Amino acid sequence: MSRILVVEDEQHQRELYAMELEDEGYEVEQASNGKEAVEKVKNNKFDLVILDIRMPEMDGIEALGKILSRDKKIPIIIYTAYSNYKSNFMTWTADAYVTKSSNLDELKNKIKEILNTRSS
Amino acid sequence: MKNKRFSIQFLFYIPDLIFIIIIFFAYLKRYITADVAMLIIYDFMFYFLIKVFLHFWGYKVLILNQINFMQKYIDNFKKGKFSLKESELKNQGYLSEIITELSDMGRHFENMVTTQRDEIDKFKEFYNNIVLSVSSYFLVINQKNEIIFANKSFITNFNLTNDDIIGNSISDLFYFSGGKIAEAIENVKKKGDSVVLRQSRLLSKNRIAIIADVKVSRITIQGENQVVLVMDDITSKCRKDYQISLISQISESIQKDDEIERVLFSILTAVTSGSGLGFNRAMLFLIDSSSSTLDGKMAVGPDSIEEAVQIWGAVQGEKIDIVKRMEDYTSNDRKKGFFLEQVLEKHYAYDSEALFVKVLKEQKAYHVKDSWNDTRVDPETREFVGVGEFIAVPLIAGNRAIGVIVADNKYNHAPIWQDNIELLSIFAVQAALSIESCNSLTSVRSQMEKIKLRQDAIVESEKMAAVGRIAAHIAHEIRNPLVTVGGYAQRIIQTINKGNKNPESIKKAAAVILKESERLEKILSNVMDFTRPSPYIREFNNLNEIINDTITLLQNVFQERKIDINLILQENLPLVKSDFNQLKQVMLNLVQNAMDATPRDGSISIFTELVIDKVIIRVKDTGSGISEEHLKNLFEPFFTTKVTGVGLGLAVVRKIINDHNGEISVENCAEGGAEFKIVLPVPL
């Protein structure tokens, strides 16, 4: 069973993702900001990280750098309401950049796609 | 000396004595007999007695003569004739000495008297000269109100002779002295206290006008009460004072005025008012470019000498305030006198030979001294003006002549002096500019009105633009709750589709949707505040609340730009009567402005505090500050240092703050960055 870390400051959204992804059969861990995420990655092994960008304390971009510097191979999906971060080079290091939507299918497909490529 | 003289007299008798002694010795020596000696002595005695008799008789005659002489001399002495000729003193014996002494004494007295008389004469002359020559006018009036003395200045100035004055009364000499001066004279006669009538206007019967401080006082000479009038002629002083203030006064009042008629009226009032230029009448013509005529537009001046006297009498003693007179002036006031009507009906064709048209074309002042014989004056003008001497001055604005001012002294026939002409010329320039500006004013006003409307529209659109600038952030902000709402809704549907009837999970999802919807609404209303139309709503608002609202709106931007925001807000701040949305706009603009100036990782601090009866808001950033040259026009519309934006943000801020009777200022902080300070009054 793949382990996924959901990093999102909005509690309702975070809980929604967790519920949905658990329904999909993943094991889900939650973090409410970049700092927490970096801590969790340090202590646990995750197969994938879903990362919001605009968060208090430590934003997604910074967290992205820190996580990658620890574990280059860990797949990361940036999941944000803002499309303008696409122009930020840092986001290019992520495996995918998905814009938030109430329809979570795109996210779920992307997760599947990445995990499949990794396992094969 | 007396004795000596006496002995000399007796020397006469020495030869006689010697003769007798010789005879006596001849007898003793017996040269002659006793008989012969006796005979000779008897004969001699006879001769001797005759000689003595003759001597004394002559002496008596001499004394009588001397007494006569003495009497004559005393008579002369009484008449004041002291001196005597040397020859007269001859044969006067020792009397001459006495007389010489007397005459010396007499001369001495005479000297004394003469010196004193000289002295008295000198004093008399001195005082007479003072009285006669002082520039003040002296009049002395007796109990019967007859003038008994007038000094030289008075006589010369009013062009009179002593015969015209002495024995006449004041009202025989002046037109309206029956008023205050006569009253003053009666008062002084009764009470004896001196009275000073300041700045009295006097017009003599031969039409010489002066302004004078008149002092009326009582003197008593040999038991009779007399009244002295001392008039200090302050005409030229008044005129100078007046002339100095005239132009500034006029231009000041004209600047305030926008009605062309009033401007023209005030110009001519200045030209005619007593102590100013002091012309009796003045008229003003303006060029009408559409009809190519020079039209009479305004006239000021009395219609007759009676009216003139009445007007001058009415302003007696009171200072004419042009500005006030203009304020008093309304169209109703301006009764259309004959003179004004005449001028208004006057139209000169621009191609005519009329004098005023010449003045206009040549842009040159014409001083006509004798219009009846002056060939420059056309007959029409001659008849129209109806006076010998007048002056016509062009009104030149820029380098274009726009009209003509004509002035004369129809009623007092005072000559027009060079300085009057110069002053009128200077004044004409001022007047011309005033007329021009007044004419321009109307069109400028309407333009201004249009511009103001446009500016208001621009300011309004700038408010929208400001909203536009934050719209991107808002779009993102609503995305999050929207996504959440959609996600949970989807989840509910899925839950139901799967037949999983877990009411708890549906209820929870619905609650989330509700909460997020509320959040959305709040965001929307926050944005809507800025787009509402502008009529002010004055309520009591808590400034801290306004600031918190604004910051919430911009929270995302702060995060994005990594700018720290510090709120140091004083608690229990009194409410300020204000428009909530307008002030929110102010805060938004100021904070956005601060953000634009603040680099990454900088900070913005907002302080509120109550100082006495004012609430102060300070917005401070850690940016680059504002350069000196920008400080002064920072709040001007369309001033911007940014690549984007139209430069209205701070202008809008200032307008709103001004509308709130507040003040806004800005300064650079010593530690870097700028600080905007808003001061708003707290209603008591």
Describe the structure.
The complex is a heterodimer of chains A (120) and B (684). Chain A is an alpha/beta fold and 120 residues long. Chain A contains 5 helices and 5 strands; from the N terminus they run E-H-E-H-E-H-E-H-E-H. Chain A has a 5-stranded parallel β-sheet with strand order 2-1-3-4-5, with helices on both faces. In chain A, helix 2 (34-43) packs parallel to helix 3 (60-70). The longest helix of chain A is centred in the C-terminal third of the chain and has 15 residues, at 105-119. The two termini of chain A are 15 Å apart. With 684 residues, chain B is α+β, with helices and mostly antiparallel strands. Chain B has helices spanning 2-10, 14-28, 34-79, 86-89, 95-133, 152-157, 162-165, 170-173, 180-191, 235-256, 260-272, 305-314, 322-328, 338-344, 355-362, 379-385, 418-497, 503-531, 543-561, 580-597, 628-631, 649-659, and strands at residues 137-141, 147-150, 195-203, 209-221, 224-233, 281-288, 293-300, 347-349, 366-368, 390-397, 400-408, 539-541, 564-569, 576-578, 603-611, 614-621, 663-668, 674-681. In chain B, strands 8-7-6-11-10-9 form a 6-stranded antiparallel β-sheet, sandwiched between helices. In chain B, strand 10 (390-397) and strand 11 form a beta hairpin. The interface between A and B is medium-sized, with 16 and 19 residues.
Features:
heterodimer, A: 120 residues, alpha/beta, five-stranded parallel β-sheet, 5 helices, 44% helix, globular, B: 684 residues, alpha+beta, six-stranded antiparallel β-sheet, five-stranded antiparallel β-sheet, 18 strands, 55% helix, elongated
Question: Which helices and strands occur, and which strands form pairs?
Answer:
The complex is a heterodimer of chains A (120) and B (684).
Chain A: E1 3-7, H1 11-23, E2 27-31, H2 34-43, E3 48-51, H3 60-70, E4 76-80, H4 89-92, E5 96-99, H5 105-119
Parallel strand pairs in A: 1-2, 1-3, 3-4, 4-5
Chain B: H1 2-10, H2 14-28, H3 34-79, H4 86-89, H5 95-133, E1 137-141, E2 147-150, H6 152-157, H7 162-165, H8 170-173, H9 180-191, E3 195-203, E4 209-221, E5 224-233, H10 235-256, H11 260-272, E6 281-288, E7 293-300, H12 305-314, H13 322-328, H14 338-344, E8 347-349, H15 355-362, E9 366-368, H16 379-385, E10 390-397, E11 400-408, H17 418-497, H18 503-531, E12 539-541, H19 543-561, E13 564-569, E14 576-578, H20 580-597, E15 603-611, E16 614-621, H21 628-631, H22 649-659, E17 663-668, E18 674-681
Parallel strand pairs in B: 13-15
Antiparallel strand pairs in B: 1-2, 1-5, 3-4, 4-5, 6-7, 6-11, 7-8, 9-10, 10-11, 12-14, 15-16, 16-18, 17-18
Helix pairs in contact in B: 2-3, 3-5, 10-11, 10-17, 11-13, 11-17, 17-18, 17-19, 19-20, 20-22
